[in-house]
Amino acid sequence: MPQFHCSAILFDLDGVLIDSTASVSRQYRAWSLENGLDPEFVLRNAHGVRTVEVIQRVAPHLDPEVETLKIEKREVADHAGVTAIPGAPQLTRFLPQERWGVVTSGRRHLATGRLHLGGIELPEVLVTAEDVQRGKPDPEPYLKGAERLGFPPKDCIVFEDAPAGIESAHAAKMKVIALSSTYPASELIAADAIIKNFHNAKFSFDSEGITIVVD
């Protein structure tokens, strides 16, 4: 069984701590049809990256800031099916607050709303789309998360669910454990380990850090 040791953990949000796939799909599909775009093409580009960068990629003729606010406002109001990933609330309550944080491609109001819906306490470190100049797959989001926690990047483990996030974390010199919640395991093979949810990993911590054993 793979074993990892780290000083701190950085979690992606959607698909890692919170299952928001149904809400994301509904709102991107509706937005795509409103703008004469292929919903399947848009959704293929929508996971793991900032909404503003999705718009720039799939609809460069539209104002990305205006469309981002429109989509995320709808996502904030769409609660149906938004739940915690199995084991996530228990894990975040178990870990010391100073040893974990969240790094998401969503904006702060969307991230805090989804954490609340999932029954997960707001972390002391929350890096959102507004906090970075370059989103995933650039390493900036995870480097900022490590900096705010106060640990070297190499001493942090990342939990991700998307190829763009895995690339971002690896570029930041962090190891990655992927959850096959959004993408099949075959698309996450770049990760250092793959699990279905947090029930497939055991966590322990002491004064020297956190140990993670993956089933």
List the keywords.
three-stranded antiparallel sheet; 8 helices; 2 domains; 11 strands; 215 residues; globular; Rossmann fold; six-stranded parallel sheet; alpha/beta
- Helix fraction bin: 25-40%
* Total count of helical runs of at least 4 residues: 8
Q: What integer is the average pLDDT?
A: 95
Strand order of the largest sheet: 6-5-2-7-8-9
How many independent structural domains? 2
Query: What's the gyration radius in Å?
Result: 16 Å
What is the CATH architecture assignment of the largest domain? Answer: 3-Layer(aba) Sandwich
Gross morphology: globular
Q: What is the CATH first-level class name of the largest domain?
A: Alpha Beta
CATH superfamily of the largest domain: HAD superfamily/HAD-like
Question: What fold name goes in the CATH topology slot of the largest domain?
Answer: Rossmann fold
Tell me the fraction of residues in β-strands, as a range.
15-25%
Strands, count: 11
Q: H/E element string?
A: EEEHHHHEHEHEHEHEEEE
Structural class: alpha/beta
Oligomeric nature of the chains: single chain
The biggest sheet, with number of strands, parallel, antiparallel or mixed sense and barrel status, is: 6 strands, parallel
The low-confidence parts are: none
N- to C-terminal separation? 6 Å
